[in-house]
Amino acid sequence: MSTTSLLFRSGLARGLAYATLLVFFVLVPSQIEAQEKFRLGFGGALLGNLASYGLSNFHGLEYAVLEINKKGGLLGRQVEIIAEDDSCDPALAALAAKKLLSSGLKYVMGHSCSGATRRALSVYNDKVLVISSSATDNHLTDSAQNPYFFRTIPRDDAQIKVLLGLIKKNKYKKIAILHDKGTFGQSLADEIRANLKSEPNADPQLVVFEEIPTGHVSFEAEIAKIKDTQADAVLWSGYYNDAARLVTQMRQKKAEAAFIGPDSLCDQHFINIAQRAAEGTYCVGHVYSNHNAAAQAALNDHRARYYSQDIGPYFFYAIGAAQALFAALEKTGLEAEFSDVKKRLNEDTVETVMGPVRFDAKGDVIGANIKLFIVRDGHFVEVRQ
What we know:
14 helices, Rossmann fold, single chain, alpha/beta, 6-stranded parallel sheet, 16 strands, 4-stranded parallel sheet
């Protein structure tokens, strides 16, 4: 049986946080052990408050690797994942990137968060080809500083289009925008603010725009502003942990404005923390179809190996990223120049669990869909528009 192995070279001694990851360690048959493997890097949040983002990405990559190894590997070589934790922290991402780069890895899947990804890319430069399945910041591809960076998740402006559509459809008139001052949160908030001013049909009024450092404990002052201005919608731009505290305190103080956020809120951990306060929250995310046999097989496999643990928001994006890379490498060969691999990623449409995927000249995905969800009875339910 073809299998995959995983090497954790950073922080293994940092305690029980890795225990759940080590569940899927498997023994590799001796004949495969003797065969040279294709080593594939992974950088992302495997520890810390935002570990669910990284684990969602990692589990998707893991599934894609298991599947290709069952079929004999990538051009006859078993694929092995070399993972480094960055905890969604830019400084740790730089360290993780240096470790992966110093190991001679040419391909890395990651990183999980936009700020961490931007920092890691400054280390990789053009020496590593990187595909992220969760970093959405427009700057990552608009800057043209990283010619070998790709992503399977739609970028921020695609999410903004959906969020503005919700504002228009629900006729929200007074909008409050709060963000966490991070790379992802601030960039998204600034773009939403700019786009609100150019939406003549919706005609919303921006009544609150606040920067709130991540880890903020009490939102009493911000909630007072939301209530005083009679905002009927609050757009949170940041990650789920801060969002859960904010919406919980809003509901406790009878602030009934609609709560809206990006893909980072479409995570079961947000519901687990906020509980009943999460009800009615809107977020954007990937559409999973039960009619996609490949996606259903991936979901069934994950449920069997992880005891029905939630797949998280980036599972299918991560599988799609790996499948696109594997398809390109099968055509170019494993020692090909990055320019040749990039050409295949730009020109070839690959059938993945996400559906057909390829990348534009910037590295942004073509073919991925993104939809609006609402929390109903503790679950994310697609909003039909």
